[in-house]
User: Which sequence fits this backbone?
């Protein structure tokens, strides 16, 4: 983005029209990033501090640039530490932001917030957490997307080559509902986890009365020919977002989070014969033992290990959960929120 001062008519319509013309926003109205607002967002931080180069155009991600986009997205200054932590996580080579930005897959970085700080500023993990109505979720997620576009240069059809994209590319940020989780949090303390995922796949199970019943439905939802099954196996991951009611049923049978991870790892599988029907069978870096499989009844795993299944609790009342498959060439990364 230009560092020149841009003078416009003092009207929201004029600002939106000019920012859209210059391809500086996502098409939604923005808050003009005036000098005062940007400095307030920085909160005394050195705006010249650079976190790294952001692909695909490899522009320098300075705190000032992050603050400009956070202002535009409608963030409160108290949200900025989460934005910074999320960008730090995405710039970790393990996350493979270049792949996430440039792929034809509809991947979007899902920001999951743990800890009391996120709750104190209103990051929502309860009823409807993936949807609208929560300023912190909406604007933090939107700030991340604006940064990916304006700093990284990932514009649809130019840098961002997603075939159809997804609504998750507007904003994708939730908190874990730690209060209603029967287990320890996904991450301890004030932490941000960034996960390159598809939009949530709904898990509808209104009849399950046991952990096995709930998790069988979850496992079935997690494995389809249309997912990136088999591609980049060594980096494949799954995120299971259990609704509180499903989590209560599962924990009520004595299962720990590790038990859930093991169950999904062992049961979210398709036979080799079915995998051969389409999807992404045989592409890219299948390990040698998978390429050596000959028995069509064999059940190769969806992810390399149970540790590659992330389990958290979010949402409110209702017997729904969600599966968020990853794009299979990105690995989740966590960072502490620096306060």
Assistant:
């Amino acid at each position: 983005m230009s560092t020149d001062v841009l003078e416009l008519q003092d009207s929201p319509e004029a600002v939106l029209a000019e920012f859209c013309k210059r391809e500086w926003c996502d098409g939604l109205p923005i808050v003009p990033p005036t000098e005062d607002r940007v400095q307030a967002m920085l909160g005394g931080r050195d705006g010249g501090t650079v976190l790294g180069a952001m692909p695909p155009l490899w522009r320098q991600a300075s705190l000032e640039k992050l603050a400009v986009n956070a202002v535009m997205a409608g963030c409160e200054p108290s949200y900025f530490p989460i934005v910074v932590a999320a960008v730090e996580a995405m710039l970790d080579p393990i996350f493979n932001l270049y792949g996430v930005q440039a792929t034809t897959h509809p991947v979007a970085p899902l920001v999951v917030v743990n800890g009391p700080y996120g709750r104190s500023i209103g990051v929502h993990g309860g009823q409807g957490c993936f949807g609208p109505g929560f300023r912190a979720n909406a604007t933090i997620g939107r700030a991340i997307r604006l940064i990916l576009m304006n700093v990284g240069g990932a514009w649809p059809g130019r840098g961002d080559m997603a075939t159809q994209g997804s609504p998750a590319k507007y904003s994708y940020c939730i908190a874990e509902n730690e209060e209603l989780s029967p287990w320890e949090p996904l991450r301890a303390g004030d932490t941000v986890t960034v996960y390159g995922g598809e939009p949530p796949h709904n898990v509808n199970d209104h009849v399950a009365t046991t952990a096995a019943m709930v998790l069988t439905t979850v496992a079935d939802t997690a494995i389809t020919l249309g997912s990136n099954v088999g591609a980049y196996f060594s980096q494949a991951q799954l995120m299971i977002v259990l609704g509180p009611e499903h989590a209560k049923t599962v924990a009520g049978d004595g299962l720990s989070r590790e038990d859930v991870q093991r169950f999904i790892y062992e049961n979210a599988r398709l036979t080799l014969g079915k995998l051969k029907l389409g999807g992404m069978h045989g592409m890219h870096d299948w390990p040698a033992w998978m390429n050596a499989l000959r028995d069509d009844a064999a059940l190769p795993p969806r992810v390399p290990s149970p540790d590659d299944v992330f389990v958290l609790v979010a949402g409110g009342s209702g017997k729904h959960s969600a599966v968020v498959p990853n794009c299979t060439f990105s690995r989740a990364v966590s960072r502490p929120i620096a306060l």
User: Anything to note?
Assistant: The chain has a mean pLDDT of 93. The two ends are 27 Å apart (CA to CA). The first helix runs from residue 12 to 21. The chain has one domain: 31-336.
